[in-house]
Design a protein that fits this description.
Structural class: mainly alpha
Radius of gyration: 21 Å
Strand content: 5-15%
Number of strands: 5
Distance between the termini: 52 Å
Length: 161
């Protein structure tokens, strides 16, 4: 018999909240994400002093730059909000804005050397984690996991690059 808040009740076939959430893919992804963020902070990847919103902008910029409208779409926020985040990153020296070569009215957000170095460091940490994944799961299972995650991410986030 289980005891709940002073009363006794029969064991239930209904799983508890903890039992239900333990195996949820979303929870597992969140656990992995938090572990990756801790590893990044420990290994000097994306600066831990940057707010999450600014980090999100940095990871969505393509190497040759991205339009503000593209970043707003990818992050699901307004152009005004992304413009403010870009201004903040620009003030900190991580990005700069340049005219888009294909559309004179548009601006591209590009990494400065400081921003590029930060993202390069982050990619290096993720590459190390990929190697660790291969070691722990084996290369075959890690490849299957990668393919499945790519499919799931493409379904949930089709605008990402």
């Amino acid at each position: 018999m289980q005891k709940t808040s002073g009363e006794t009740r029969k064991p239930s076939a209904v799983p508890t909240l903890d039992e239900r959430r333990t195996r949820l893919i979303g929870r597992l992804v969140t656990r992995l994400s938090m572990a990756y963020q801790r590893r990044l902070a420990a290994d000097g990847g994306v600066s831990h002093d940057l707010p999450p919103a600014q980090k999100s902008v940095l990871v969505h910029i393509e190497a040759d730059g991205s339009r503000v409208t593209t970043l707003a779409e990818r992050l699901g926020i307004s152009k005004q909000a992304i413009s403010k985040l870009v201004q903040e990153l620009e003030a900190q020296g991580y990005v700069t804005r340049r005219p888009d070569e294909t559309d004179g009215r548009a601006m591209r957000v590009c990494y400065t050397s400081k921003g590029y170095a930060l993202v390069e460091d982050t990619v290096s940490v993720f590459e190390e984690l990929d190697r660790e994944t291969d070691e722990v799961l084996g290369t075959k299972d890690a490849a299957v996991l990668r393919k499945l995650l790519e499919r799931w991410a493409a379904h949930l986030d089709p605008k990402a690059f």
